[in-house]
Specification:
heterodimer, A: 279 residues, alpha+beta, 8 helices, 27% helix, elongated, B: 303 residues, mainly alpha, Alpha-Beta Plaits, 2 domains, two-stranded antiparallel ribbon, 52% helix
């Protein structure tokens, strides 16, 4: 059963057929790939509530390095991490967590990072305190109970980096005019973005939320200099000592006391319930 | 059944093409018995399902033998395995991987270099069960027609997925890859990705016979290239006993690989050396004359 040598016309014909087939295959494959590439670009946007595990590279690098194996998910002892499924709006198969559902417990040995075989989660991260999964932002001051003058403090209490990542800042309460408000205040130099604050917020919808840094933070221009920092560095004012003028209308106040309520009237000591006591 | 009739015609122009084989293997079952006529198929299904079970023992029963999925896994906390095709895309996207991933991909590459890349397709890949079902149903329902893309499409797609990875700086193909989606879905949860798997099933059933695995899947193309020189091969060593029943052509997922070996078209020896052969062994099963057997590429004997 030997094959006959094909005649010249037949081989030309089969060459033509072959070239046509190749062109069709290449064209089809090219179209498919372009479609996929476009989808990939389009779908690389991630909802702000989907946080990456600790040590994750920046999102574009992460999407190149993560092979979607789920080993980080498997080694997360608190079931915090999950692999996104098609329809979750997070690149399919990549790990993420929703802080409001289950926050990161900030394990000391960071098992998720240790499990990553590709380096999508940077093994250089050995101190979980240095993780930057996002940044907590007290996003709604209208509903936050502490901003209403109550002592909720839950976000502050649950913060694993308490008094560094979240502090309570004492501010005069202009509504009652006699109480303090203790405002939960996040500090970006210490917040890891673990999301325990968002998880613990007692409101039906959290007033404090962990956002990706890109959304949560502004960026100062490179050339900006802060006068007071420059002054401290130089050991004195760079433009000579300035004359300090008194502020009109506030001459009798303590230094720094600039409180003015909309209908602020100095009370008369001893009249009615108001004793005139001011903190 | 285009491939079948085409082959029959080119072999014997004088004879009319045989009707499409709707129940291949009937004769083999009569001659060899059901078990022997399904030996390789059963072994293959056992292999596919036990690999899946290894991954599922952890999440279902808390027995952690193998963690991860086919993209990358860790077995018994010591054996790392990584899909080399995926790692190649990652490198193309500009991310040099860690040693763990390189080691894992190296082990996988070495294995398939030896036993034949497309062993992955027929013995490991969960999509094979889906497309085999589609092919079986297509045969049983006697569905004909449709439009089959060129078998070269997969190689172009393989090249383009790497280009897309480089161009987008991300693992672009992983956004749609039905293979990894199916496996990940079974282990970690599907979401909507069952839709993509269903799409592949319907495509294979209604539009293109063996369309996905045999013509489009770039992963199969990659593993095929990997196994080009592999040791393990199927040989039609008793081809003299062939009675032209065409059953092997009917069940073979890559029917074009059989003819050179069985009919001596362009080669003298009976070993199937085509890299597209998946070493599934189904041809061995359905042959009532025991023409085929699994052997090495060096063994070119005939009996």
């Amino acid at each position: 059963m030997t094959t006959q040598r094909p005649s010249p016309e037949r081989s030309a014909q089969s060459r033509r057929r072959f070239l046509k087939e190749m062109a069709g295959a290449a064209g089809g494959a090219c179209l498919v790939t372009m479609g996929v590439g476009l989808v990939a670009r389009e779908a690389s946007a991630r909802p702000a509530t989907a946080l990456r595990p600790p040590g994750a590279l920046t999102e574009p690098d992460f999407l190149a390095a993560c092979v979607r194996c789920g080993l980080c998910v498997r080694d997360c002892p608190f079931d915090t991490l999950r692999l996104s499924e098609l329809g979750d709006n997070v690149a399919t198969g990549t790990p993420y967590f929703d802080a409001r559902a289950i926050p990161c417990e900030m394990c000391d040995d960071i098992p998720c990072v240790a499990a990553c075989p590709t380096g999508a989660l940077d093994h250089g991260l050995t101190d979980i305190g240095q993780a930057r999964m996002g940044l907590a932002v007290l996003i709604d001051q209208e509903t936050c109970l502490n901003f209403l003058g109550l002592r909720c403090d839950v976000c502050y209490r649950v913060c694993p980096v308490i008094d560094k990542a979240i502090t309570l800042e004492l501010v005069h309460n202009p509504r009652s005019d006699r109480h303090a408000m203790m405002l939960p205040t996040v500090h970006s130099d210490a917040c890891t973005g673990c999301g325990k604050c968002e998880h613990a917020c007692v409101l039906p919808e959290a007033a404090i939320k962990v956002l990706p840094h890109k959304l949560a933070q502004g960026k100062a221009a490179e050339h900006y200099r802060k006068g007071w920092e420059e002054k401290e560095q130089a050991g004195g004012s760079l433009i000579g000592e300035q004359t300090q003028l008194p502020m009109r209308g506030l001459e009798d106040r303590r230094h720094g006391d600039t409180r003015v309520a909309p209908d602020y009237k100095p009370s008369v000591p001893g009249s009615g319930l108001d004793s005139g006591w001011k903190p | 059944m285009e491939a079948v009739s085409a082959t029959a015609e080119s072999d014997r122009p004088a004879r009319t093409a045989r009707p499409a084989v709707e129940r291949p293997g009937t004769e083999a079952i009569e001659v060899k018995g059901w078990m022997r006529a399904h030996k390789w198929l059963l072994l293959r299904r056992i292999s596919q399902f036990s690999i899946l079970v290894l991954f599922l023992l952890g999440p279902w029963f808390g027995v952690w033998i193998t963690k991860g999925n086919l993209s990358s896994s860790l077995t018994l906390d010591m054996l790392p395995l990584t899909d080399p095709y995926l790692l190649l895309q990652s490198i193309a996207a500009g991310q040099p991987p860690y040693a763990e991933a390189l080691l894992g991909a190296g082990i996988v590459t070495a294995f398939y270099l030896l036993v034949g890349g497309r062993i992955f397709c027929s013995w490991v890949c969960p999509m094979n069960i889906v497309t085999d079902l589609a092919a079986w149903l297509r045969r049983r329902l006697g569905l004909k027609g449709g439009k089959v893309p060129s078998a070269y499409t997969r190689y172009w797609l393989l090249a383009f997925t790497l280009v897309a990875a480089a161009a987008t700086g991300s693992l672009a193909w992983e956004w749609v890859n039905p293979v990894s989606m199916l496996h990940r879905g079974l282990i970690f949860g599907f979401g909507l990705s069952w839709g993509i798997v269903l799409g592949v099933f319907l495509y294979d059933l209604l539009i293109a016979s063996r369309g996905w695995c045999g013509h489009i899947c770039p992963m199969g193309a990659f593993y095929g290239l990997l196994g080009t020189r592999s040791l393990l091969r199927v040989s039609a060593s008793r081809r003299r006993a062939c009675n032209d029943c065409m059953d092997c052509f009917a069940v073979c997922p890559e029917p074009q690989v059989i003819r050179p070996a069985l009919k001596g078209a362009g080669q003298a020896h009976p070993v199937i050396l085509d890299r597209d052969c998946t070493n599934c062994g189904r041809c061995i099963d359905v042959c009532s004359k025991d023409v085929f057997r699994l052997t090495t590429r060096i063994d070119r004997s005939e009996s």
